[in-house]
Amino acid sequence: MTGETDETGTPIIRLSIADQEWIATIDTGFNGDLELPEQLADVFTAEYAGESSTTVGGGVVIEEELYDIVFPFDGTTVKAWAEFASTDGILIGTGLLRDYRLEINFVTGTVLLERVAGP
């Protein structure tokens, strides 16, 4: 998969979900799988998986509900944990990328996600 860095240098990829293109930010500081806009909650068959505590900047702890979903990613579907939030973009965490090599070239503004074989 390929993407680019936006005008602020943030790595993004574009995903097609429910006949719409979505900008997905790759957040290497987010250890979960996905944060999705609330408006996508009806697109997925989401099964409640429990609560999650996340510590964000400044030591603030956020409690969120996690859902099991099947998510279209890299030409296939993957099982993932998702949080639904009041946002207009998708956040991809390192949990979803555990089988990938991530390369960000800030000079050229390119992003490469490449699936790699496990050990």
In short:
The protein is mostly beta strands and 119 residues long.
**What are the segments in which pLDDT stays under 50 over at least 5 consecutive residues?**
none
Give me the side-by-side strand order of the main sheet. 5-6-7-4-8-3-2-1-10-9
Largest sheet: 10 strands, mixed
- The H-and-E topology, N to C, reads as EEEEEEEEEE
Structural class: mainly beta
- Mean of pLDDT: 92
Number of strands: 10
**CATH-assigned fold name:** Cathepsin D, subunit A, domain 1
CATH class: Mainly Beta
Q: What is the overall shape?
A: globular
Distance between the termini: 21 Å
Please tell me about this protein's structure.
Strands 5-6-7-4-8-3-2-1-10-9 form a ten-stranded mixed beta sheet, with no helix packed on it. The two termini are 21 Å apart. The relative contact order is 0.28. The protein is 0% helix and 58% strand. The model has no long low-confidence stretch (mean pLDDT 92). It is an all-beta fold and 119 residues long. The chain has one domain (2-115): Cathepsin D, subunit A, domain 1, CATH 2.40.70.10. It has no helices and ten strands.
